[in-house]
Amino acid sequence: MEILVLIKQVPDDSVEVKLDPATGAPNLNGVEAVVNAFDTYALEMAKRYIEDNGGNVTVATIGDDDATAALRTCLAVGAGKAFLIKDASFAGSDTTAKAYILSKAVAKIEEINGAKFDIIFCGKEATDFSKGMVGVQLASELGVGVATDVIAVNPAEGGVTVKQETETGYNVIDLATPCVVTIQKPDYDPRYPTIKTKMAARKATINEITAADLAVDAAKVGEAGSLTKVLKLYEPPKKQAGVKIQEETVADSTMRALAMIAEAKVL
Amino acid sequence: MNFHFNEEEQEILNMLHDYAVKEVAPRAHEIDEEEKFPMEARNGLAEMGMMGMYFPEEYGGAGLSYLSYIAVCEELAVHCATTSVVLSAHESLCSWPIYKYGSEDQKKKYLTALASGEKLGAFGLTEPGAGTDAAMQKTVAKDEGDHWVLNGSKVFITNAQYADIFVVFAMVYRDDYKERPYTNKDISAFIIEKGFEGFSVQGHEMKMGIRGSSTCSLYFDNCIVPKENLLGEQGKGFKVAMTTLDGGRIGIAAQAIGIAQAAINETVAYTKERVQFGKPIWKFQNTQFQLADMQAKVDAARLLVYRAAQAKQDGEPHSHLAAMAKLVASETASDVSRRCVQLVGGNGYSREYPFERHMRDAKITEIYEGTSEVQRMVIAGWLGATK
Amino acid sequence: MDFAEYKDVLVVLELDEGKPVNVSLENIAAAKSVANGGKVIAVTVCENAAKAAIEYGADSAIVIEGAQFEAYNADAVADAVAQIAAEVKPAAIFTGATGKGKDLVPRIAAKLATGSVCDATGVKLDEAGNIVFTVPAYGGTILTDVVIDSVRPQVASIRGGSVQKLEPEAGKAGDIAKKAITVADDQIKLQIKEAVKEIAESVNLEEAEVIVAGGRGMGSKENFDKLQELADILGGVVGCTRPAMESGWISRAHQVGQSGKIVAPKVYFAFGISGATQHVSGMIGSGYIIAVNKDEDAPIFDVADVGIVGGATEVLDIMIEEFKKNK
Predict the structure, then answer these.
(1) What is residue B61's predicted lDDT score, i.e. its pLDDT?
(2) Per-residue confidence (pLDDT) for residue C62, from 0 to 100
(3) Each residue of C182-194: pLDDT tens digit?
(4) Which of C135, C139, C192 sits opposite A127 (nearest CB)?
(5) The CATH number of the domain where C151 resides is what?
(6) Pairwise CA distance, residues A161 & A150, whole Å
(7) How far is CA C298 from the centre of its chain?
(8) Is A235's Cβ below 8 Å from some Cβ in C?
(9) Which residues of B are catalytic?
(10) The pLDDT value given to residue C116
């Protein structure tokens, strides 16, 4: 099986990102760039898939030179090859434009690899702007099937059987390959790199692909190719803090709180 | 002297930091409270290739610098002092002497398994009646022609219960030992495997700090040891032990710095949050000045530790440097962690917070792998011989 | 594209045992608020659900008929909605931001070659008649306003609890048009072999007046279970944070926050919840917030009306006793 894992580099989601009042943009100073958490699950699932069934994992991202760090991180935990899809004209692309770019990139990478992809793994959403649509839109561009919120992928006759998490349980879905799956957190964590894989990843080649390589239609990428526009970013309204009670004993604190709740007549 | 890590080493250290934050730190409290051996970290570090990182790749290591290994000991201790000593006992005290003094066959057989992390190592020198005074060892190895027979016991052995391979020391039996008592020149080193006939690990020491590390006694009751398991030359065991401890001390000194840095980091964070008299107690000059002093001391100690590590890496004499590093780092750790408990106050003394654990963990660094008094002896010995 | 032709708003109903789920009813209210003179049309495969939608404010409904819709299939439904949209030319299409809804929105948008928005927490009209969607970013610490101003329809999933549903009007009249639809075979690429229901309980956090929520600070499943007792006394529903759900103390149907539901009860109890933005963004709209945490610096106290510094289980035990007495 030939597997492509699409990833995105995002600001560390364990840090609370606030707006910078001076610029009106998110203040990312000192916030480390990491591989989007759902993409790390996708890569781990892809890696386990080829460990069990044989095959290769290629990883790719749209980004600038900074994103090579994310690709190297992926190379250290299971990806065999990495592609950076990079072009100044791609800046400002929304999910529609990104899906278009990725569809072209898939074809190009297949040409370079000399093999068609059977499964394309994406994280179910990114932790920065959690849109969660690129995977489905890409599948549509490619004219292939897609399942979302996937927590397990297994080989089946003519394709794969996937387990999709639902609000109340799960669905078992058959998909013909090639196909796209978007990955929800499974019940395991991504592996850690080892010293050896980390050192090998440092030395590995990151293949670069540009707009010219892809022969994209300039009207369909970047802001021009985007169908959604972000008007502004702002902070959610704050709530005024009330009273914090810390009496001698917890029982006293609780009784005082109960008195206040009774007085507020909310129950 | 320049202690910069190259890009590659820095990435490895970042990777270890990441692992330690996610996997080691969250278990530190439980490991201490329940006296639980950090098996997850032992396995995790093995998978990452950290269990023999500075040994050559041909023996299962990663060929990294000794300094970066020391930085790993330090980083682990920031998050969990117990986990740090599991690594350093394994790597400095068991793997290193096999690497340094072992035959090619011994290296292939034992070092490869240790460095890859498949097997865990331990070191046995101390006996009930022979701590600092190694010449008082009662463990005896008798040459029985095609094998050795060991009798005796060892105490306070780190990693003992979970170790697979042990480097231990014994007096090689002489008929005339009554007339001419054993001296350091009779000591030899041996490689013992878990499961050797007549060898057992018993007891579990209840300790003040590093409570998750396994500290037990080793018993040799007519223990049969293959002839080829003599490590280094016969009668040169004392040198094996002392040079091994020179390296071990740098690891312990790094552990001490890690503990001290953790205490400072947590105290700064705590005092910034804790409000008294209408402002965070961090805002009081006493808090700031004390922590500033502490940080300066820790950094001074860190430089000593890195210098000793660099000297060892460069093959320069480093006994005295290791002794100075451990002396200063361990006493700094004890001092800093104690003062941090005081700055935090009641919560510093509470077992719900990590401060008192730092204080208990710090104390051992003044004791094991040579007490502070032993370090002073080593330093004075060097002074007397060279000045 | 002449936007004037695109007037109505389609709401694709999500069903649970033949009834529209709560967020679908909220979608009708959201649709009405931005319909701008157009009609709100519910789209569903079930006639009873269509009737319910009309009672909750939809002007009319389209009931999709066809063998391909007997069991839910995202490819089939997306194609059917796209076929209807091609005919009706709606200004917008809404779904709930549930797993199904979020899956459906990009499928529909891709078929119609239009723009889509995922997980909106608010909708309003701008002067030009575009819908301005509020979409949280960075776990809810930042909000963005997003528009789709060059194409129609505007396809979006809207999160549960972010818009209040309307009061139902029993027996309200409204056109229900049945429409037989066939989806081309090559458009159906996935087959659901089995749908397994693991969570049997129905949890209605969005409509609860009282929510008794717990986080990691509850310490154990046994302690966590006591929250139900207080919820029962107060006629409330139990909520949880993501860590509590991940610890296996309660099912994800109870989760409040960025990756769960947005709630706005009259009273919200937060036991052993530190107050990470991911959680707070889902409950900040609550009328009265009571927080209990042993860490006096926990950020939850910044949004609480009443905060108690103390162990969550200890306070919970006392509250259970006291509320029992007063009952």
Answers:
(1) 95
(2) 98
(3) 999 999 999 999 9
(4) C139
(5) 3.40.50.620
(6) 10
(7) 28
(8) yes
(9) 369
(10) 96
Inter-chain CB proximity A195 and B11 less than 8 Å:
no
Q: What's A236's DSSP letter?
A: P
Residue A115 has pLDDT above 80, yes or no: yes
The per-residue pLDDT for B306 is 97
CATH classification at residue C255: 3.40.50.1220
B49 touches A: beta carbon within 8 Å: yes
Residues C168 and C250 reside in one and the same domain: no
> Which tens digits make up the pLDDT trace of B23-65?
999 999 999 999 999 999 999 999 999 999 999 999 999 999 9
The chains in contact with chain C, meaning 3 or more Cβ pairs closer than 8 Å, are A
The ipTM is 0.93
Given phi > 0 = left and psi -120 to 50 = alpha, else beta, which region is C122? beta
Q: C279 and C168: one domain? A: no
CB contact under 8 A, A169 and C322: no
How far A196 CA lies from chain B's nearest CA (Å)?
Answer: 7
Cβ of B15 within 8 Å of Cβ of A193? The answer is yes
| Cβ–Cβ contact A29 with C under 8 A | no
Name, in order, each residue with C-beta under 8 angstroms of A35's C-beta and a sequence gap of 6 or more. Answer: A7, A8, A9, A10, A43, A70, A73, A74
The predicted-structure confidence for B239-265, as pLDDT tens digits, reads as follows 999 999 999 999 999 999 999 999 999
Residue A170: closest C-alpha in chain C: C196
Q: Which of A228, A245, A264 sits opposite C307 (nearest CB)?
A: A245
Nearest CA-CA partner of B110 in B235, B229, B218, B254: B229
CA quadruple C95, C98, C99, C101: dihedral, nearest 10: 0
Choose from B7, B9, B10, B12 for mutation: most chain A CBs within 10 A.
B12
* Domains of chain B, CATH where assigned: 7-120 (1.10.540.10), 122-235 (2.40.110.10), 239-386 (1.20.140.10)
Show contacts of A213-219: CB within 8 Å, 24+ apart.
Answer: A213/A108, A214/A85, A214/A101, A214/A104, A214/A105, A214/A108, A215/A104, A216/A89, A216/A100, A216/A101, A216/A104, A218/A89
Considering CB atoms only, which of A167, A171, A234 is closest to C143? Answer: A234
- Chain C residues whose beta carbon lies within 8 Å of the beta carbon of residue A168: 197-200, 253
pTM across the whole model: 0.88
Tell me the residue range of the domain where C87 lies. 3-187
Tens digit of pLDDT for each residue in B313-338? 999 999 999 999 999 999 999 999 99
Is A166 in Cβ contact with C99 (below 8 Å)?
yes
Domains of chain A: residue spans and CATH: 2-220 (3.40.50.620)
- Interface check A196 vs B, CB under 8 A: yes
- Find the closest chain A residue to C157 by CA distance: A131
